[in-house]
Design goal:
The structure is a homodimer of 355-residue chains. By secondary structure, chain A is of the alpha/beta class. Chain A is built from 15 helices and twelve strands. The longest helix of chain A is centred in the C-terminal third of the chain and has 17 residues. The two termini of chain A are 22 Å apart. In chain A, 53% of the residues are buried.
C-alpha cells in the first residue's frame, strides 16, 4: 500500500527502529540499558538528549516529552499563568488550543489570509501583541492542514523586539527538514517523534534556549534532581528506543529536503492538471498539501458509495491515507514516497476521474 | 535471564502484544484501525475504554493516560487548585510528589511505621484531614518499595465521612491482582500499562466515579468534543495497541493472584533462611518485596568488586533485576516467575553467600 496520510509518512520506522522496537518492547525494558531513570544514569540517552538533539534542533537544552501537545502544555504551564494571553497562528493544531485551555490561558489568533493560500502574515502578531500583552507567542511551522511555512525568522525578530517568549511548533518540520531554533530566533522548538522523526509514539522533543532553564527545569523541593514540569522523567517506554535508533537516518534524510519539496511541487502540478486544486502556499514548500477536488466531489454526489467512494476506489488501487468520506477537501503527504509511486497515484486519480 | 526487576516483571509483553507492537510500531499507525482519534471513531479502542476497562477496574468511566504519573497529575490538576493540600501515604512513589508540585499542591504525608514493616495505618489520615482540610487524599496500593497493601477500604470510608476525593494509585496492582475501585470506595484508580498490564510504555489507565465526569472530562470551548485535561486525546501511539492485545491474558492472570502471593511468601521464607530479611508487611501479600541483606553487605566490604559484586555474581548465574551497586537493601519481584526458577534464584543466593 502507498500511504499518503500526513500524520503517518514521517513516522514510518526505519529498520533500526523496528529492531529497537522489538528489543525494547517490554514495559520498562529501557531500564536494561540503564540502572536508573536519571539522565546521568543512562549514557546512551544522555548523549542523545544532551548532545545530539540540541545540535540537531539548534537549541541549548532539550527534553523528551510525551508528544508535541504535552510539550506545548509544559511550556505554557511553566512560562505563563492562568489568565495570561497567548497569541497563536490561526492555522494551529487543535491541541494548541486544548493545551492553552488546560493551562488556563486566553487564546488570541492571528487570522490566515483564507482561501486559497491560507497564509499567516507574521507581521499581524505585532498589532495583537500591543493589544493583548501576551505571555507567549506560538507559531505552527508548518501547520498540519496546508503545510504552509510562515516567516518564522521575522516573528523571531518581533518576539525579541517585544521581549516575549516565542514557541515554534515543528511537529511537521523537525525530522523532515533542517530547522534551527536559534537561527529562527525562537525560545522553544517542539518536534514529534511519531509525526516526523521515524519513531513509535507517543514521544516529542522540546528544545529551549538556556535562559529558560531555571523556569522549565525547576526542581522538586523534596527530590532535588527531579524536574517538576516533566514529572521527574519522561524517559520511559519503547518510543524513546525507536527515536534513538532512527536518529542517524533522520539526521541524514533532512539533507534531502530540497528533493522532497521538488517532488511535492511536481505532484501538486500534476494534480492541478486533473482539476484538483492545491490550496495553501504556492509554490509550495512542504510535502503536506491540501487539495480542493471539485471533480471528485461531483462524482460523490452520484456514486452509489457516496462520499466514501474515493476511499474505496483508492484502496482498490493500493493507495491509502486520505480520510474516508472526504472528496471535496483532503490533505495528503508525499514525504518519503518515491517519484514512480507518486506517478502511479496521479495515474490512479486520473483513472478514477475518467471512469 | 531470570528478571526480578519489580518495574519489569508485570510489563513483559504477551505474544499477542508482541504481534501488536510490530503491527502498530510505525508512528501513528493506530490510525490504520480508525479514521480519527475521537473515541467514537475507533470501535476497537472505544469498546476497550468504554466497556472492558471500566468493568475491569470497577469504575464508571475510564480514560487512557500517558502513564500513572500523568494520571495523578490530571486528577490533582482538575480536582484541586494551587495552594490546596493533598494527603498522601509516606510510602508513595516520588512522582506523587512531583505531580503535586507541578499542580502547585502542598503535600502532607502519613508516616509509615518504619523498619521493619513500614506499614501505613490509614486511620492516621483522619487526624491530618482535620488539621489540613485537604482537597484530595491519595493512597499507593501497594507502594513500590515494600509491596505493602494498606487498608484501602477503610480509607474509602474515611474519605466518604469527610467527603474528600480519594485517589488510589494501583500502578503495582491493576493488572496483577483483582482490584475494584468501587468496592474500595475510591473516586479514582490508576494503573500502569508498562508496570503491571503486560504493555509497552508509556501508557496508564485512569478509572473514575461518574460524579467527576464534569470536572475531569471538561470540554474545550473551541472544540466541544475534546477533553481539555487529556489535551484532546491520549490514544496515540504504539503502547495502546499492546495494552489492548494483552488485556485478555491480563484479565485471566489476575485470577491466579493467590498463587502469586503464596509463591512470594515461600520465596520470602527461603530468603530469610539465608539470613536475608524481608522488610514490609508479614505475612506478605504482594510479589514486590524489599530485603535487608546484612550477610551480602558484609561480603561487599571485602570483595574486590565492592558493592557491585552482587550484581555481577547474579549476572553470571543468569539472574538480573536487582539494581547494580545494591547489597544491603534491595527490592525484587517474583511476579510471573515459575517456582522452579525462583528455587534456582534461592540456590544462587546461597552459593553466593557460601563462596
Amino acid at each position: 500500500m502507498i500511504n499518503l496520510n500526513p500524520i503517518q509518512t514521517g513516522g514510518i520506522l526505519t529498520k533500526a527502529a523496528k529492531r529497537a522496537l522489538i528489543e525494547f518492547g517490554d514495559g520498562y525494558s529501557v531500564y536494561d540499558i540503564s540502572p536508573g531513570l536519571e539522565l546521568e544514569e543512562m549514557p546512551a540517552i544522555r548523549e542523545f538528549v544532551s548532545e545530539l538533539l540540541p545540535k540537531f534542533l539548534g537549541a541549548d537544552i532539550v527534553r523528551l516529552t510525551l508528544g508535541a501537545r504535552e510539550a506545548m502544555f509544559s511550556v505554557m504551564h511553566s512560562v505563563a499563568k492562568p489568565g495570561d494571553a497567548v497569541i497563536v497562528d490561526g492555522n494551529r493544531h487543535y491541541t494548541t488550543v486544548t493545551a492553552a485551555e488546560r493551562a488556563g490561558l486566553k487564546v488570541i489568533e492571528v487570522r490566515s489570509s483564507g482561501e486559497p493560500e491560507y497564509k499567516i502574515d507574521v507581521n499581524d502578531y505585532e498589532d495583537l501583541i500591543k493589544r493583548h500583552n501576551p505571555r507567549l507567542i506560538l507559531l505552527t511551522y508548518p501547520d498540519g492542514n496546508y503545510g504552509n511555512l510562515p516567516d518564522a525568522k521575522t516573528l523571531g525578530q518581533i518576539a525579541k523586539k517585544y521581549n516575549i517568549p516565542y514557541l515554534l511548533n515543528g511537529a511537521y518540520s523537525v525530522g523532515r527538514m533542517p530547522i534551527s531554533m536559534k537561527e529562527l530566533g525562537a525560545d522553544f522548538v517542539i518536534g514529534s517523534g511519531q509525526k516526523s522523526m521515524a519513531s513509535s509514539g507517543p514521544i516529542g522533543v522540546l528544545g529551549m534556549n538556556k535562559k529558560w532553564k531555571k523556569i522549565m527545569l525547576r526542581k522538586s523541593k523534596m527530590y532535588p534532581k527531579k524536574e517538576i514540569e516533566f514529572l521527574g522523567s519522561e524517559l520511559r517506554g519503547t518510543a524513546v528506543a525507536t527515536l534513538i535508533a532512527s536518529f542517524p537516518e533522520v539526521k541524514e534524510r533532512i539533507k534531502k529536503w530540497n528533493k522532497e519539496v521538488k517532488k511535492a511541487r511536481w505532484f501538486s502540478k500534476e494534480m492541478e492538471k486533473l482539476g484538483i486544486k492545491q490550496m495553501g502556499e504556492k509554490p509550495h514548500r512542504h510535502d503536506l498539501m491540501f487539495f480542493k477536488a471539485d471533480p471528485l466531489y461531483k462524482i460523490s454526489l452520484k456514486h452509489p458509495k457516496g462520499r466514501f467512494f474515493l476511499y474505496y476506489e483508492l484502496k482498490k488501487k493500493g493507495i491509502t491515507g486520505i480520510k474516508p468520506g472526504l472528496t471535496k477537501y483532503f490533505k495528503l503527504s508525499t514525504f518519503g514516497i518515491p517519484e514512480e509511486k507518486l506517478r502511479y497515484v496521479i495515474d490512479s486519480f486520473r483513472e478514477i476521474l475518467e471512469t
